[in-house]
């Protein structure tokens, strides 16, 4: 564990106390972030609370205690998702749900996930202090295993709650220690049967909102503490294979080669400018590549690579996929090699509804924050919930855009302003 760890001291050092009003207390948020950060703290000041670990469970237990102190009715479903419920004036109405996750990537940061959970909990604290009771029930949720570090398959808790799980595939998962999904569930007091039974009646929920760090630099570049997420990009993975002819690197003339890597190289270099043709929120990345036979003195006969393609709008993402396939075919024709491709993942993107964004803009205006909209390139629990229910997201400024890293940082001033915007937003939709 990191010696002399004091996340609270770092957070509070430059905090502006005037931001603590309307029942929202920056000091309390800082203390709670600190308490969570001590669970799974690494030697270099990072976080290690992978999904379905004892560390994730301990962090949930800590927050469950805070929920109970507030008088919330607390329950945990068969996937380990935790819900703290505050009854509204009209208990027959569906609930507004807000929250995030407490698990981390190995040696991750201390804001990705916990900030969203604590922001949602702070809203209840503020209502308790000011004597406000919402019309609708309000629930704070902690989703299990959002990051997916345990089984390379994330957003697990939100998928379980919405029924977006292929149980045959889920049951086949094995972690890096060779432990099956069933064994891991049992070790955390759950089971495959309880996990499969975690599906919730979504008619009980009116809408969902998630506060999260940006994990990018756009808010920092605009010097804004909080931003409105315009949509959550859905990834589409394209596997592309170039097949040429392997040969001796010394004896094969340049004019007679069928070099698969040369074709792949041209293809990769040309991808960079394609997203801008379809959308200002589209992106495409080649992050995985295999060269065969991978010898120093052998002309590559085959290259297999994967393209990660994302946008917040499905139609422009589809257009980008077509452009990328066309580019692959052009490169293969130019260098006399064959090209095959297949789609290996297709996740529907979730654009945020215009009415929701208008409520968010009004909430920002109440706190004199310019309402900037920005897309989320990363997946979040709101992506899963947003397929079924109205969903909103707020981003809080990230220092240098760093995330999934011990250096991940959002100032307490920005975090608290995010809670104020969340409060205004939830209260506005609660009155509808």
Number of strands: 15
Computed Rg = 24 Å
Mean pLDDT: 96
Shape estimate = globular
Beta-strand proportion: 15-25%
Instruction: List low-pLDDT spans.
Output: none
Listing every helix as H and every strand as E from the N terminus to the C terminus, the arrangement reads HHHEEEHEHHHHEHEEEHHEEEHEEHEHEH
At CATH level 2, the architecture of the largest domain is 3-Layer(aba) Sandwich
- The level 1 CATH classification of the largest domain is Alpha Beta
CATH superfamily of the largest domain, by name, is Zn peptidases
Describe the model:
This protein has 432 residues and is α/β, with parallel strands linked by helices. The chain contains 15 helices and 15 strands. Helix 2 packs antiparallel against helix 4 (114-130), helix 4 (114-130) crosses helix 15 (412-430) and helix 10 runs antiparallel to helix 12. It is globular, with a radius of gyration of 24 Å. This is M20 family metallo-hydrolase. Keywords: Hydrolase, Manganese, Metal-binding. Belongs to the peptidase M20 family.
